[in-house]
Amino acid sequence: MGENTITAEEVSQAQQAWGEGIVVIGKIFTDGGDYVKAAENHIDTLYDFQSGPVLFKPTKAAESQFRMTRESAVSYFVSGNDNFKEDHGFAIHPWTKVRFENAGTFITGNYAVAMGNYFFTETDGTEVKVEYTFGYVKDAEGQLNINLHHSSVPFSAD
Questions:
Q1: Which domain holds residue 54?
Q2: Which of 5, 29, 91, 150 measures 20 to 30 Å from 80, CA to CA?
Q3: What is the pLDDT of residue 60?
Q4: Residues 132, 83: Cα–Cα separation, whole Å
Q5: Angle of helix 35-46 relative to helix 70-78, nearest 10 degrees?
Q6: Burial class (CB in 10 A: 0-12, 13-18, 19+), 26
Q7: Is 60 exceeded by the pLDDT of residue 137?
Q8: What CATH number did the domain enclosing 108 receive?
Q9: 138 pLDDT exceeds 70?
Q10: Mean pLDDT of 61-82
Q11: What is the pLDDT of residue 158?
């Protein structure tokens, strides 16, 4: 296995870091701290915007469905950008926990894709189920960065 090859454990760790980051942003917002800086750090640490556009389709975006810039991703997570008036700040909700359940993971060299459900826990303990596909690339420092993020609410025939 090459030095740049991604492992399933690294994907799991990247997912855990993403979930913990979302929870931290909401806690900082609730505590009156600099939640925008926390969201920017989350995006700069875990997403691959430094290499170019990221294929990002957030769960609750309808007018600007696809967020391929850092600016549009920050807006989705914390709101406050007049260019994206539909944003209400997904990460400032706040959530108390995020749990991933991978349906499958495909790894080839320094690229991985994981798909499944993730569950966002409300302050009252209720879990909200969302479907996801995340793509990861490994950077020169050996960190996984998200270059594909698609989330959607499960289909309902109602």
A1: 8-152
A2: 150
A3: 86
A4: 25
A5: 130
A6: buried
A7: yes
A8: 3.10.450.50
A9: yes
A10: 91
A11: 75
Which tokens is 85 given? 């008036």
Q: Note whether residue 31 is domain-resident.
A: yes
Asked if the structure places residue 69 within a domain, the reply is yes
Mean pLDDT value of segment 141-153: 94
Average pLDDT on 36-51 reads 96
Q: What is the pLDDT of residue 132?
A: 97
What are residue 87's DSSP bridge partners? none
Q: How confident is the model at residue 3 (pLDDT cuts 50, 70, 90)?
A: low
What is the spatial order of strands in the sheet that 97-108 belongs to?
55-57, 144-152, 127-138, 111-121, 97-108
With 0-12 CB in 10 A as exposed, 13-18 as middle and 19+ as buried, what is 117?
Answer: middle
**C-alpha distance from residue 9 to each of 12, 43, 133 (Å):** 5, 21, 17
Report whether the peptide linkage leading into residue 154 is cis, meaning its omega lies within 30 degrees of zero. no
**Whether the Cβ atoms of residue 36 and residue 78 lie closer than 8 Å to each other:** yes
The answer to whether residue 94 sits within a structural domain is yes
